[in-house]
Every structure is written in C-alpha cells, then in structure tokens.
Amino acid sequence: MTYVSFPFYLFVLAAFLLYYSMPLKSRWVILLGGSIFFYWQAFGSGEGMAVLLATVLFAYAAGIILQNTKKKSIFAGTILLVLLPWFLCKNGNYILEILLRRDAVNWIVPLGISFYTLQIISYLADIYMGRIEAQRNLAKFALYVMFFPQIVQGPIPRYHRLSGQLYQGHTFCERTVVGGFYRILWGFFLKMMIADRAAVVVNEIFDHHDQYVGCYVLTAGILYSIELYADFAACISISKGVANLFGIQLADNFNHPYLAVSVKDFWRRWHMSLSEWLKDYIYIPLGGSRKGQVRTFVNLVLTFVASGIWHGSGLRFVVWGLMHASYQIIGQLTRNIQRRMVRLLGLEEAAEVRIWIQRIWTFLCVMMAWIVFRAENLTTGVQMIRSMFRVQNVWIFTNDALFTLGLDWKEWLVLVVSILILFAVSLKQEKGVVFSDAVFRQPVLIRWSLYLVVIFSIMTYGAYGMGYDPQAFIYGGF
Predict the structure, then answer these.
(1) How many other β-carbons are positioned within 10 Å of the β-carbon of residue 103?
(2) For the whole model, what pTM was predicted?
(3) Distance of alpha carbon 323 from its chain centroid, rounded?
(4) Are residues 90 and 72 in the same domain?
(5) Which residue among 172, 204, 232 closes a domain?
(6) Percent of the chain's residues with pLDDT above 70
C-alpha cells in the first residue's frame, strides 16, 4: 500500500470518517490505529513492525530516563543504541562485503528507518537539553513516531511542533481539508506527470552509462535533478495533504530549491527538515561558525559527510556530501572575487540577470553532484561527468536520438510541458502567489470544474498505461 495506490485512499477515507465521528479528545486513537495498520500493510510482514515497535519502546523508556538524569554517558549510550538498527540495515552489508570481504546478511530494513531514527534522536536530544519534557503515555509517543502520512519519507518532525497537533483532536475545517485535497492532487501531478516519466530516460542512460556519453549525460543529469525533486516533493505534498485532512499541519520540506542563488541557499530550500536537523544536532554542537573560519569549514565538512552517510552506504555518497561542502567553502572564500566579477561585467544594476546567472550556475553544480549520487558507484559517476565535458555530441538535441531513450515525442511533449508548468508555478509562488487561496475564492462550480479538469488530465496524460508499474518514491529507499 503506497501513497499513490487506490487501497491507500480507501484506507485514508475510512480513517477520515472514523476520526471525525469520534469524540474530540479520543481522535488521536484513530490516528494511532491507522498508523499501525498502514505500517503493517505497507511493510508486508511482521519483522519490520517488530523492529519499529522495539525501537519505540526503547526510545520511550530512554526519554523518561533522560528526563530524570542528565548524564552525558547515558545520553550518548541511548543515541548509539537508537542508531544501531539503522547503521546495521544501511551500512552492514557494505562493511561486510566491501571492507571485510564477507557474505552479505539479509537484514530486516523497516520502512522509513532513516527518517524515524532522526526523529527519535531529536526527541531524546531535546529532552537531554531541557527543551521538552518526555512523553509519559507510551501510546501517544508511538503515534508521534509512527504517524502514517510522514513516516515513509518525512518531513522529519520535531516533537514540540507535531505532538500537540496529534493529541488535541481537530474539528472539521473545510478550508484545511480542501487545502489537503489540493496538495494531494499536486503530488500526483509531480509524481505521474514528471517524476515517473523522467525516470524512464534517466534509468536508460544511467543503467547503460557505457553506451551514452556527452550530451546524453547532460540530459540525464538535468532530468534526474528534476525527477528527484518532483518525486520527493510529490511524496511530501501527498503527506502534507493527507495530514491536512485530519487538521494537522506538517512542516514544509521544500522552498523551490532550483531557484536558489548559491549552494548554501539551495540547502536552505532543499529537504529543509533534514537541513535543519543537521544544523541543530551536528553542525551547531560541533561549534558551528563560532570558532573561526577553519573550524567552521571543518564543521561544515563533517556535517555534509554525515548527510552523505545518512543517504546511503558507499563512497559515492560521502563524495556527494564533500562536493556540497566544497561548493560552500569555495563560495565563501571567493566572495570578494565574485563581487569584482559582478562589477567588471556591469551586472550591479542588472539584478534580474545576475540572479538568473547565479541560479543556473547553482543548478549545474548541484546537478553534477546528483550525477555522482545517482551513479552505481563513484568511478562511474566521475566517468560520466568527464564524458559530459569531453564528448561534443550536441546533435542529439536536433535529430531523433532522444526519442530512442524510452519516450516517444508525445511523451516527451507531456514531460516538457509539465516541467514548464512546475517552473511557472514555482516562479509565481516565489513571488508570494498562493494558488490554493486563489482557487478557494472561486465559486463552487468553477472550483469543482477545475478539480475535475486536473484529475482528468493526470489520469489521461500521467505515466499510466499497459504494463505501467509506478516507481517507488526515491527517498523511501533512504
């Protein structure tokens, strides 16, 4: 049962009806029951559920212990024990096969383990630092960890922001529920019209990287950057939309990251809940930017190495993190040079032109890091980037070469138009336009006509068809 499956929305409908039929103070029980049911169905076996419940029970007890004692050794021990299942699941086989030359082990990998592990660590750290008090009700704590709209891919919630919303119960609010419906539709648009279509070309080029060089790699890099964003943003949009149906507001996770004017700005806009987590629980505890420039750069490198390790096992993820750290360090060291270049090129008054140059440059830097991230290993990623600069085969954009990558011209047309819609919407939202408010102000007939047009368009032009198999959400694999 995935977020884009029909059974999921039957489940959501049942939970929705039960939630608003219960007494206000008991509505959180429906969310807990629904979360347990969803996790059981989504994982498909009891082993993952057992690991998750054991982790919840341990974290619950650890929170109460940390509430009563502030010993650093106890805190460090609990964090290491919470990290252990994640570390074994995500890095155990890499260590066994690559480093120790041993046979791999068939680890039980609970759904969403990378996300709920960080969620639990932030909960325990906040208790230790006196920011929050431990939850004494085991069932309520389990709901905080397992809340079904966000357990698969986040956003990674903070206890003080989410817990009250989960436990207090909400009355039916048409505006909030309709807003949730908007977000779910937008998520389907991103997933079906963009991410899953782009994945066809991306997979073809990356899976046969020895056959495709030069501008093929550039095409794959651009499309993978878009695919990853559309796919992840789709899941987050659906998560936020489903939570809205129950009156709950999840944290924002994206703020148009490909409109960033620097890599530092990109990380303020991309996977914002993870960026905030890394800042609060790794970068700042290491000293942040308070201990001089060299120490700041070291802390930055360590933070991005941690981000790379969180995303996956293997050297390419560490290098991906180091690339982003290097981008930011180079950006800070060359600030004066950049200002001189702006003056030399006469761009001081042409603010709009300067911003777009910065956006394009930032996108290209991020895209090259994504190529390393997506490649099957570091060597392949480096070779693909090198071929992008060494092989000049721009004619693939003028002949029919792109139509041999898995999409015909009609499907390319749908993909390109959909990307342009996403781009236009992002630009408008960047300027403060709130589309849901504009739609909600329209008469009921116009609103529902618009809904039906969007639904019909997604059903007609989305990545459906004979043999269609919806791509799993990418970040669900992390």
Answers:
(1) 8
(2) 0.91
(3) 19
(4) yes
(5) 172
(6) 94
